[in-house]
Design goal:
CATH class of the largest domain: Alpha Beta
CATH architecture of the largest domain: 3-Layer(aba) Sandwich
CATH superfamily of the largest domain: Aspartate/ornithine carbamoyltransferase
Number of strands: 9
Strand order of the largest sheet: 7-6-5-8-9
Order of helices and strands: HEHEHEHEHEHEEHEHHEHH
Bound molecules: N-carbamoyl-L-aspartate
Distance between the termini: 9 Å
Number of domains: 2
Radius of gyration: 19 Å
Strand content: 15-25%
Length: 297
């Protein structure tokens, strides 16, 4: 794999290879600190991040690399420097990989056409967030052994969610059933063509789910109003304590973060017995080591 730009187009074997590598990293053996020794991984975050940036940084360090952390704040973007000029200038300093997050869908793809080093998409607009989908699949696989045949219910702001799109491709490739539940205004037209089932009746599908993934309501990407109020969204689509009672006993609850506690997920559920939200974060480091290894080899 030269770049990791999205899950769409990856085969099941590609995905399973990353998951296998991540499993080895999770056990800390063999020592991987020589893999990228003397190399530099550049994090280019044109958009904010807590988990993704820090875990790419920790993953790169664990492989022995130096990390260049570039963020828009304080950069020449404020002077009008373009994405391509920024990317080419950072590349000229000699990194082996660029980890790019950008508010525009396709930005890492554009960058990849103009640089020689590897490019990893750390979230592009509303399009894809491949490392998140891989760490989510890893979290599910580690609990279940196999993702194949399981039902994963993804709830909320599907329209603006790169996490939902990448997860849909990844989970389908691994043989899971994916059900998307959202108000019709927050469902992209034609998403069924990608292999998802679609509903807006949360209470009907909840008991079928082996895992429920709640998505953040992405107010910053919503130019207009997609639902009357946060309160109404929460009443119809929020995973609250009463709904959690109706989950299968061993069902898993995921959220990519950052959470709007009390909107798409109640604090009691986020911190409750079904939640694997912090496992997702922990697994993110192993997955990102595996990704860096794959693209830099
Ligand atoms: C997500 C993102 O930025 O796409 N967060 C993450 O990377 N864990 C989800 C979100 O912003 O809602």
């Amino acid at each position: 794999m030269k770049h990791l730009l999205g899950i769409e187009g990856l085969t099941r074997a590609d995905i399973e290879s990353v998951l296998r590598r991540a499993e080895a990293h999770l056990h800390g053996a063999p020592d991987a600190s020589h893999v990228l020794r003397g190399k530099v991984v550049a994090n280019l975050f044109f958009e904010d991040s807590t988990r993704t940036r820090t875990s790419f940084e920790m993953a790169a360090h664990a492989l022995g690399a130096e990390v260049l952390n570039w963020t828009t704040a304080g950069s020449s973007v404020s002077k009008g420097e373009t994405l391509l000029d920024t990317v080419r200038n950072i590349e000229a300093t000699g990194p082996v990989a660029l980890v790019i997050r950008h508010r525009s869908s396709g930005a890492p793809h554009l960058a990849a056409r103009h640089v020689r080093c590897a490019v990893i998409n750390a979230g592009d607009g509303t399009h894809e967030h491949p490392s998140q989908a891989l760490l989510d699949a890893f979290t599910l696989q580690r609990r279940w052994g196999e993702v194949e045949g399981r039902t994963v219910l993804i709830i909320g702001d599907i329209l603006h969610s790169r996490v939902a799109r990448s997860n849909l491709h990844c989970l389908r490739a691994l043989g899971a059933r994916v059900v998307l539940c959202a108000p019709p205004t927050l469902l992209p037209a034609g998403i069924e063509a990608l292999g998802a089932e679609v509903t807006w009746r949360l209470d009907d599908v909840l008991p079928q789910a082996d895992a429920v993934m709640c998505l953040r309501v992405q107010s910053e990407r919503q130019g207009e109003s997609f639902f009357p109020s946060a309160r109404e969204f929460s009443r119809l689509f929020g995973l609250n304590a009463a709904r959690a009672e109706r989950l299968k006993p061993g069902a898993l609850v995921l959220h990519p973060g950052p959470m709007n506690r009390g909107v798409e997920i109640a604090p009691a559920v986020a911190d409750g017995p079904h939640s694997v939200i912090l496992d997702q974060v922990a697994h993110g480091v192993a997955i990102r080591r595996a990704i860096l290894e794959e693209v830099c080899q």
